[in-house]
Amino acid sequence: MSLGADWFTQLEETRKIAASSPATLETPGRLLALDLGAKRIGVAVSDELRITTRRLPVISRRNWKDLLQQVAGLVQSFEAKGLVIGLPLRLDGGEGSAAENVRALAEKFQRSLSVPIYLQDERLTTFAANSDLKAAGLNESESKREVDSEAAAIILRDFIDRMQS
Hints:
The chain has five helices and five strands. The protein has a five-stranded mixed beta sheet, with helices on both faces. Helix 4 (125-135) crosses helix 5 (140-164). With 165 residues, the chain is of the alpha/beta class. It has helices at residues 5-19, 64-78, 97-112, 125-135, 140-164, and strands at 31-36, 40-46, 53-60, 82-87, 117-121. The longest helix is centred in the last third of the chain and has 25 residues, at 140-164. The protein is globular and about 40 Å long.
């Protein structure tokens, strides 16, 4: 698959959002990732060297204030240097209402948190997460509990890989 103009536009917009932050991607330390869902939010964190990622327990989505408190608490407890949010693009790379909602939420996080916010294409991450969990031997109910955070871990790995290349 070739990289289209949409990908470069998204990368530039991600850099603009991050540029308004007090820290930059070059600041060493952990990154936190979110896979935003309507009811549940998957969460993952990297190690300080950004070599490995691990999934964390999901966050139940209730309202903005509760979500912000939980994410701010995670940023603080892990001393995260950035927050990566999965951007739900359509398979053709275009953006629909879900992507618009995520962009709006990313801007709210940017105004409320003291770490840079990055957007990462999350196409097919839930499919990949289900495959990874099945390959790891988790049964269906275990997979259902872990899939959102596994997707967040994939989003985070993809983001780190993209930034290193």
